[in-house]
Every structure is written in C-alpha cells, then in structure tokens.
Amino acid sequence: MWSRRLGRLRPVVCGAEELRRRRREREAALRKARREQQLVSKRLLRDDAPEEAGEGGVVVILGEAEVQQFLRLAQRGTEEKERERALVSLRRGLQHPETQQTFIRLEGSMRILVGLLTSNQALLQLEAARCLHELSHAEQSVVAEACLPATSYLLTYLSGHSSDFIELCLYTLGNLIVESEAVRRQLLPQGIVPALAACIQSPHVAVLEALGYALSQLLQAKEAPEKIIPSILGSTLPQHMLQLLQPGPKLNPGVAVEFAWCLHYITCSQVNNALLITHGALSTLGLLLLDLAGAVQRTEDAGLELLACPVLRCLSNLLTEAAVETVGGQMQLRDERVMAALFILLQFFLQKQPSLLPEGLWLLNNLTANSPSFCTSLLSLHLIEPLLQLLPVSNVVSVMVLTVLCNVAEKGPAYCQQLWPGPLLPSLLNTLAFSDTEVVGQSLELLHLLFLYQPEAIQAFLQQSGLKALERHQEEAQLQDRVHALCWTALHG
Amino acid sequence: MQLPSALRTRLAGAPGAAEPLPVERDPAAGAAPFRFAARLVRFPREHEFFEDGDVQRHLYLQDVLSQVAEAPDRPRRAFPSGHLLDAHILEWHDSLFQILSERQDMYQCLVEGCTEKFKTSKARKDHLVRLHLYPADFRFDKPQKGSGPATPGASRHTAIKALGDDREQSEGEAMEVCSEPAAPSPAPAGGRWTYSQRIPSTICFGQGASRGFKSTKKRNKHR
Question: Would the keyword Metal-binding be found if you checked this record's keyword annotation (chain A) (predicted)?
Fold first, then answer.
C-alpha cells in the first residue's frame, strides 16, 4: 500500500524552493479551513483506462443536449456495448464541474442514473456507480446532494458480492457523508451503521480501506458525538476495528490508517471511551505502537507517520480515562518498551515530520504524569539526554519537554538525584535565555523542584551564572514572583 | 537526536519494567508562587492542537488517485444484496410463502439489522419509507398490485437480455430469477403479483453466476 501511494507522485516542473513555497501556502490555507471547520476531505477513485490517457487528460464539458443523449442511449440503447459506451462518455464528462451542474439541472437525470444503477446489467451498474462517484466528489454541495436518491441503493449493495463494486459504493458514500447533514440524516435511519458492521467482515483489503474511509467521514460529522457515535459504539464495529489494528502479519497499513483515524474521532469525542478500554483498545494500541517503532528500526517507514499520528492521539486521550485504573490497564502502564518505542518514534518525527513532535510529547506527558513506573523508565533507559536534545526545536516542543521533566522531578528526591548531576542544568540555563514566557515559566518550575529535592544543584547553578540568567526576567509580570523566589532560594537555600 | 544503543534491544526484549523509584513529595513543591502540578491532558475534537496532523491527513486523502483496474473478462453479474436475495427467494419462490403469509407476518424489513415483519408488502413499504427514509419508489420492493394485466404467454424473457424498458415507471420491481419463462399471471383478486406456482429449476445468483437477473417487465409502449 505504501509504495502504491508513492507511485502517484506527479512529475515536477518547477524548482524545489517554489514547491516548498506552494506547499507552505497550501498548508496554511488548509489550517485556516480547519479552524473554520471547513476542512472537507473527499476521495476520488478514478480509472486510468488507456483511452482516457490518450485524450491528453482533457475533460470534455458536455452540454445539456449531449447529457440527455448519453442518458437516453444508456437507458434505451439496443446494444449493451452501446449503452455502456454512452455511460462512459457521460462519466468522463462528469469529471467537469460544469457538466455536473448540467446533469443535476436536467429533469429526471438522477432517476435514470439510479435506474441504471439498479439494473441487472453488471457493466451498466458499474458505470452508473462511477458516474455517481464523480458526482459525489463534486465541490459544490448541490451536486452531491442531488445524489440523495441513490443512497439507499448504495447501502443495499454493501452486502453484495463484487468487492470492486462495494469499494466504489463505499467511497461514494464517504464523499456524500462528508458533504451534508441532510445526507447523514437520511443514511442513519436507512441503516448505514448495521450495513457497515456487516461489511467490515469482508476479507477484501480494498473494501476494508474504503469502509474505514467512509466511517471516518461519518465520525467527523459535527453531530457525530450525539447522533452517530453512540450507535457506532453500540454495534460490533469497535471490536472489528480493533481487530484490524492488531499488529502482526495480517496488518494492512492502508486499512490500519483508516481505522486508526476512526478510533481517534471516536476517542476525542469523549462519548464512551471506557467501553473502548474494556474492548482492549489500550492493549491493541500499545502493541501497535511497539510495532510502529519496530518498522522505523527496519526502515520500513514510508508513510508511517500517517498511522502513528492517530495511534498517539488515541493512546493519549484514552490514558485520561478513569477506567484505565480499574480495567486491568496495569500491564500497559508499566511496560517500558512503550517508552522505548515512543522515543524511537520521536527521533523519526524529528527527521521526517517535526510537526508531529508535540503529539508524541503529549503521549509522553500522559504516560509520565501519574506514573512513577514510567518516570523511572525514562531515567533507567537514559532518555533524559535525548529528550533535552528536542529543546531547540520550537517553543511548543520546549514547553512540553520541560513539562515532562517536571513530571519526573515532582516525584521527589529519588528522581531528582538522577537528574543532577547531568546535562539538565546546562540545558535549563539555556532555556532561561529564551524569550518565550511560557518556556521560561516552565523552566522556573523545574528549577524550583530541582532546588527543593536536590539542593546540591544550587551551587552548580550559581557557579554557572544562574542568577544572571534569572535576573533577565525579574521585570516580566508573569515571571517575577517565581524569579524572586528562586533567587532567594539560591542565595539562602 | 541520539538514542542510547541499548534502546533498540530493549524494544525487542520482553515486556516489563524496572522497579519504580520511591515517590516522596514535599508540600513546598506546590507552594505559591509555583504552580506546577503533573496532570493528564485531554484534547477534544476541534482543538487546534490537532491542526497539523489533520492537515496531513487531509493531504493524504486528497492526493490519492488509485486505480480501479478492469478485469478483462468480467463475468456478467448483477450486484444483488445477500440480504435482499434471501428475502426475495423466500417471498417469490416458496409456494408455502403465500399460505403462511395469510397466517403470520411474513414480509421482513429490507434494512439490515431491522427485525420488523409485516403482513403485506405495502405495509413493509410504508415502514421502509416512514422509518428508514427509503424512496417511495424503491426498486427492490415487491411490485404493487394492479400494475396492469400481463401479456398472456409472452416469452420476451430470453435468457440474457431483457432491456429497453422504461424502468423508472416500474413501481418497485423485484429481483427475479432467471430462466423462468413463465409470464406473470394477472393480479389475483387478493392483489398480489405471483409467478406461476411452479418452483423454478435453476436459481441464478451469487458468485460466478454467468447470468444476471432478467426482467419480466413488459416493454413500455408510451414514452
């Protein structure tokens, strides 16, 4: 699956700097869209048949008369090949937004398409489904909403026999789902949840990946926490999802990515995470984390961050549940391989995807905050120094690193004795020179704990011009109380 | 970021952990003006913390153009649903069905997971439309009574082809079984379509079937 994705990179004409600039702009636009909750992600399945490539990739805009003609031919043509060709021509035209608009404005067009979708001719059904798929991918909501009459049939076909067809129906449903609440309001009573629960037992990887995509779209709906997630949790879907995330020879990365994201949308909605924990989510995800770290070590890591991200998020959020203590999550909460795996991933992120460092550190915080065991592992596995190496990355990362170090230090003298002597103090003196208030504030908190539980560090601090570093901030409103307290301790402690 | 070399071997090793160091807190740790407290952090759905990862996920979805490869000799099959087939076979081809349905509710809901049963196909259709928001002309329901007299003795239903009908006119055409040359009998007084009561010799459905379903719908004369 990973190589298939990489193979789709289009040839590049402009320079690397230009590419980077475009990418930055694109990502900025996407971030803005997300902030406004307008991030709509649709998936397009398109046939790369030879005759299409021959046209030089130009999509023909069809006029009303042509659309009508193709529909008529498809519906009433005498030869099957002729009918199929008409639908193919229609489908190609529907790749263009103008043709899409023309199509939906034509009276009876959707009715005819649905008729073809539900005919008894397999090839016509497939082409009709492809037309529908193109429409579902349209950017204008009105086009996708015109597909509403087809949804009950798409659902019906999920229990059919052709995996290609099912895959197509699923991607189409996924696109329609993300488009409008009207579609979702219809799909739920039409039985989409039981249909997906039945379909997830398919042995076909392509079907599973498509199902995961469709489900992930359903789970992202703004009304999902109240209207959708409860029935998902009440179905057999969670158990099947977790099964598909089990590491081992049968784990398919493309499938796992989709269901990991599904799990993330469920967990961050905070509907009933305790239920997921009783299904063994922590155990499965913990093992998957180990597996991912192993893949990094074997450098089988192309696209790995796509799976790592939701896994980290799920683990982090699940660890905040009270159920973790009571429901035998104890083993996962002590296995120091988890710590090893997380650091291997942090190193990987630093090289490949630095924007994921905060997510990894979030998990590190939730692992260490209330766990003497994991704090001890951090020390015994000699991970303090690697952690400190992340400080220069960004202010956000610095604050999180310092927070984790505070998690360790606050557990008392036995822990602080392992923190100093060592590289911690020089690093702290560095961070005290940062201009960011939050970074400095967190540094002050750590210093306070270090001075309290390992007073021998104070002398070293003073000898390394610590006071001067502190005094830089004595006018800063948010910092001055703590600065003064520390100066006092340093001089009198 | 330099990781200790022992880390990799640790990952491959057995589960477990060193004995945790003793915890011993001093109340002065949390005394003002200091305010650190170790705490679990939870981020809800829309939190901006997720921004970067979500954008990457979006790019991943958008950049995929996967191939839908055409099998050269795709067998001609319609794509019926297993659930519908079960319901259909039971209803259409079991001569006991008619008798039983007079005594108990035999028409089961077509939606996977819904266990409702109904006395008549109309009642079922009402249920589908009202509760499950199915379209009023859902095509896989039983045809309505009184759709017009059948053409007697018509053998339009050749094995493979049965095309050219104005399908959208049909008031819910059921999926039929192939190789059944008998024409549907006119709607009986009870108001239900039935085939002849003969159980067909072959039922074509499922994987590897070389025949699709054929229609017994008559050619519509008016446009």
Answer: no
